[in-house]
Design goal:
The structure is a homodimer.
Chain A: E1 6-12, E2 15-28, E3 33-37, E4 43-44, H1 51-54, H2 56-60, H3 63-66, H4 71-77, H5 85-97, H6 115-123, H7 136-149, H8 155-159, H9 168-181, E5 190-192, E6 198-200, E7 202-203, H10 204-216, H11 222-237, H12 248-256, E8 261-265, E9 269-274, E10 279-285, H13 290-305, H14 310-320, E11 321-325, E12 331-337
Chain lengths: ~350, ~350
């Protein structure tokens, strides 16, 4: 297997100190490859980057309407959030609408990603709950879907084990993933995600195609197409819910709103839907680095593809070519998208 | 430039989810290469991995004796510590012995690396000081050296700007680095480290050679040889000072004591001295990943090189082939040293 190309370089003292290899696919709604770097046909685990695909049944089933979920709540269903107070409260509100509470969540608990919330919890002498889990909104969405599916039955009993691949809720979720990616998940490698649901390995080509479908509705069932548009609109209204303070997804969408839907996944994965261009983007960094690798690649992709005014171009360039400071605030280096991302359209 | 080999793989669902490339040099005190993987002649920034080399003048100058530094204090001078109470207190004690306090430190302040100390500070409503900076012990060592060099002069005035390359203290430190690595630093790329002192790019071959010299004393001046032995002995007594709770360096040396001196550096660097084998080890991961890449490589190297009883072999194997759990405590994957590290001696 030949090595994927270097997509990001970290400079210090004028030389490359570290670098990040990876692969990138940009695909249109017909499956045509717009840009390709590296191996886009090897199945990779998309992790949390596909939460919007996993949330399609929540809307398409009518559950979002049944429980009158707000934009904030639908955005949280697509989120890997920082466990800030509004994230935890919104997850709790979703569960309450379906008549349940935090006990219904099967994602496990962890300390918030957001530094300020760790300190606030510690200062208050509190421990985190499953509501602070970065996936609590996605799981609250699963619970809302399950409560609709349970009909008049015992909701708690029906939901038990909803994280298992063969549970009716997870079968709906997996079915939406298969339909949107067009990839046969029955043959795909399957792993367990951080929040305990299955994650299926899908090639970047198919992930980018799925996001082009999310961007356009083309190739999706009418129900999924409406759901995708509804979720994109919700996130454009409430981008803070998708990630949080200072986080890339929220910062980019607070600025560009409905022009971009982007979502990070663990282990260096990034997906995006670009409605005005009808394109989907999927990135996987070989080393699994998120914060400084796949985000820089995504910023460079957006900078290159989207027509931008000067202010937006400057904003994105600040994310694809970052100055690195040390503890004394001295400039010590730069983090830069590799030249290959600035140049031509890439191989075919 | 051909790609360095994959040294660590992260598995999930039975497939490689992410992987880490890098280079490794194992060299003897005469400069003979015992093992080589990847490019060991490209200069790389060693960052904090060379703190023991930077601490040689503290001992060789007589400053450690003059200020009656303890094992704990000498170990802290070689540390990238977690900012735990005993780390911050020990740095303060070093400064007090030289008649100074935290105001003398020019490393900057940051929140402790150790999670428990972040929460404890937040719970107490406190902010971190320069004593919590992971480099505070190294800087306290620079201050102790400077206070000896200042003789009867104004210590504070003499020390001002000790982080600058041309300050007498930093010239001593750089001179020790040059003497031990045998690499011409006047021609080397130079960057600024996180704690604001210069960092010089040195090939892994020379870094490994320096650590073989630290392991044996061979090739060092008598003063540096005695200093290296003193620092290794101090760290073997007080390994908790070098890193902290749950950290690789401390855990490995708490177990193997004087058999190993190992030290991590930022951006995926690792160096070690193995006295009983007369070997030095130097690792650089291309992607700069520390916690899960260069540590796994170092564990595999130690496992392979050192004669071990079953308990120590099991301990190290647990660090070179790790089970990964998710938030619910389910096994979701493995982090494993690549086969190339288990096999032959590597290319020459």
């Amino acid at each position: 297997m030949s090595a994927n190309p270097t997509l990001v370089n970290a400079f210090r003292g004028g030389i490359v100190e570290s670098s990040h290899r990876g692969a990138l696919a940009i695909v249109d709604a017909d499956g045509g490859v717009h840009t390709q770097h590296g191996d886009i046909d090897r199945p990779i685990f998309p992790r949390s980057a596909v939460k919007v695909l996993q949330a399609l049944p929540l809307v398409a089933s009518g559950a979002a309407e049944r429980w009158q979920l707000t934009d904030e709540e639908l955005a949280l269903a697509c989120a890997s959030h920082g466990g800030e107070p509004q994230h935890a409260q919104t997850a709790a509100a979703m569960l309450a609408k379906a008549g349940l509470d935090v006990a219904a969540l099967e994602c496990g608990a962890h300390w918030p990603y957001y530094d300020g919330s760790i300190k606030a919890l510690a200062a208050a002498g509190q421990q985190p709950s499953a509501l602070h889990n970065n996936c609590s909104g996605k799981h609250a969405g699963f619970v809302c879907l399950g409560c609709l599916m349970a009909e008049d039955g015992d909701r708690r009993a029906f939901l038990k084990g909803y994280i298992q691949p063969d549970h009716p809720v997870m079968r709906e979720v997996t079915s939406a993933l298969q339909a949107s990616t067009g990839y046969d998940l029955t043959q795909a490698p399957v792993g367990t995600d951080g929040c305990s649901i299955p994650t299926y390995a899908v090639p970047l080509r198919h992930l980018a195609h799925a996001f082009a479908r999310v961007a356009t509705g083309v190739g999706l069932s009418p129900g999924h197409a409406r759901a995708a548009a509804r979720l994109r609109a919700a996130v454009a209204v409430a981008p803070h819910m998708v990630a949080g303070t200072g986080r890339f997804d929220s910062c980019v969408m607070e600025r560009l709103r409905a022009r971009v839907f982007c979502k990070v996944g663990a282990e260096g994965v990034y997906c995006a839907a670009l409605p005005e261009l009808g394109l989907g983007v999927a990135i996987k960094m070989d080393d699994g680095n998120n914060a400084r690798a796949c985000e820089v690649v995504m910023a460079a992709v957006l900078e290159r593809l989207l027509p931008l005014d000067d202010a937006d171009a400057t904003f994105l360039h600040g994310l694809s070519d970052l100055t690195q400071l040390n503890w004394n605030g001295m400039t010590v280096g730069q983090l830069r998208a590799a030249p290959v991302l600035r140049g031509g359209a890439g191989t075919p």
